[in-house]
Amino acid sequence: GVDKFMNVSHEELAKHASPNDVWVALRGNIYNVTHYMDFHPGGCEELMRGAGKDCTDLFDEVHRWVNYESMLKKCIVGKLKPSVDN
Ligand code: HEM
């Protein structure tokens, strides 16, 4: 539920970048896509290119039109904490 949402730093996000633990940031939201991996039409390897980081640009380059918000509704972890130095 909403009460479990957290603010995730870039540093924390980067820790989730192995195939059995994958988080991505997409337009300011953090998603745990670990269980989506096997269902990604573009494959596991492609999705791993965005693992542990803000994958918004990669995502938009390939399929800007994909409705990830409804697809990943259950996978939301929280919000990406804006970093102080960028
Ligand atoms: C294909 C979802 C992230 C690369 C697809 C498709 C969907 C999808 C639904 C099929 C699109 C279609 O057939 O029209 C998602 C979701 C993502 C995600 C929900 C959320 C994290 C990424 C990332 C990459 C990527 C980070 C890295 C580059 C691709 C590629 C294809 C694909 C290469 C195949 C495109 C094609 O064959 O035309 N994805 N994707 N995706 N995705 Fe993703």
Automatic annotation (TrEMBL):
Entry protein name: Cytochrome-b5 reductase
Taxon lineage: Eukaryota, Metazoa, Ecdysozoa, Arthropoda, Crustacea
Residue ranges of domain Cytochrome b5 heme-binding in the record: 5-81
Similarity field: Belongs to the flavoprotein pyridine nucleotide cytochrome reductase family.
